[in-house]
């Protein structure tokens, strides 16, 4: 693992006009930003953390961040990129090239014809996140809610089914199986409401998927206990097993 991390570091240096010392310093800065907020990152081994930070570097460099009613902050693109890397850390393809633009809004907002406020959404124009709610999602681990992971889950499906570049055949194949499992689960969620899922998830397998991802990282043991098959499909999809760490 350590040798692989060092090879990846050399690859980064070949791709960008910066010295090894400059790159290492940038990765140290990323670590200082991420560690106070990411329970997930702190649970990784040292070698895994270095690979995680390198992926944050790649992801961040390939995105344009737009700020709406909020001042730019160098921590924002690092933390949002870290969120994307978290959900894709078990996958080979993680850069989500379908999306070039990420929009950061100060608080909840209105979108389309809906009268209800939004805290995040994904469409062909990019990934949109309420910064206030993004940070709330990472401020408390284990509360079942994380808007960043929720929207990145939607973004990952976009990439693999609508994007010509960056799709992963393994993910696409596994997601078809997940879809079948989720759709079979929806009637029981409607008939017997569960504290783990919202009413919205009970009527839409895409929302069921996004909420499953939130639970998978925020409350993996609880998800595995109540919905073991759903947990197993999510584990296969993302090639991660957070419940196995407990």
Overall description:
There is one protein chain. 60% of the residues lie in helices and 8% in strands. It is α/β, with parallel strands linked by helices. It has two domains: 1-167, Glucose-regulated metallo-peptidase M90, N-terminal domain (Cyclin A, domain 1), CATH 1.10.472.150; 168-246, no CATH class. A four-stranded mixed sheet has the order 1-2-4-3. Helix 5 links the parallel strand 1 and strand 2 (101-105). Helix 5 packs across helix 7 (147-162) and helix 7 crosses helix 10 (205-218). The radius of gyration is 18 Å and the shape is globular. The two termini are 22 Å apart.
* Tally of helical runs: 12
Class per helix and strand makeup: alpha/beta
What is the assigned CATH homologous superfamily of the largest domain? Answer: Glucose-regulated metallo-peptidase M90, N-terminal domain
Q: Which stretches of 5+ consecutive residues score pLDDT under 50?
A: none
Q: In whole angstroms, how far apart are the ends?
A: 22 Å
Strand content: 5-15%
N-to-C series of helices and strands: HHHHEHEEEHHHHHHH
Strand order of the largest sheet: 1-2-4-3
Sketch the major β-sheet: 4 strands, mixed
CATH fold node name of the largest domain: Cyclin A, domain 1
Taking Cα atoms only, what radius of gyration do you get, to the nearest Å?
18 Å
- CATH class designation of the largest domain: Mainly Alpha
> Which second-level CATH architecture of the largest domain applies?
Orthogonal Bundle
């Amino acid at each position: 693992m350590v040798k692989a991390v060092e090879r990846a570091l050399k690859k980064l240096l070949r791709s960008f006009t910066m010295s090894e010392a400059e790159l290492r310093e940038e990765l140290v800065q990323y670590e200082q930003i991420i560690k106070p907020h990411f329970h997930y990152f702190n649970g990784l081994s040292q070698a895994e953390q270095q690979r995680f930070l390198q992926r944050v570097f790649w992801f961040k460099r390939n995105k344009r961040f737009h700020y709406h009613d909020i001042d730019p902050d160098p921590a924002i693109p690092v933390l949002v990129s870290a969120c994307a890397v978290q959900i894709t850390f078990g996958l080979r393809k993680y850069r989500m090239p379908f999306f070039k633009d990420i929009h950061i809004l100060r608080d909840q907002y209105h979108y389309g014809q809906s009268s209800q406020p939004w805290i995040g959404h994904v469409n062909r124009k990019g990934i949109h996140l309420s910064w206030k709610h993004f940070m709330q999602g990472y401020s408390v681990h284990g509360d079942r809610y994380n808007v960043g992971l929720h929207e990145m889950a939607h973004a990952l499906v976009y990439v693999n089914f609508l994007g010509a570049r960056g799709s992963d055949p393994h993910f696409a194949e596994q997601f078809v199986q997940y879809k079948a499992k989720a759709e079979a689960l929806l009637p029981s969620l409607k008939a017997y409401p569960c504290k783990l899922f919202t009413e919205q998830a009970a009527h839409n397998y895409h929302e069921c998927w996004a909420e499953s991802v939130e639970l998978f990282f925020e409350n993996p043991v609880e998800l595995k206990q109540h919905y073991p098959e759903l947990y197993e499909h999510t584990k296969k999809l993302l090639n991660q097993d957070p419940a196995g760490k407990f």
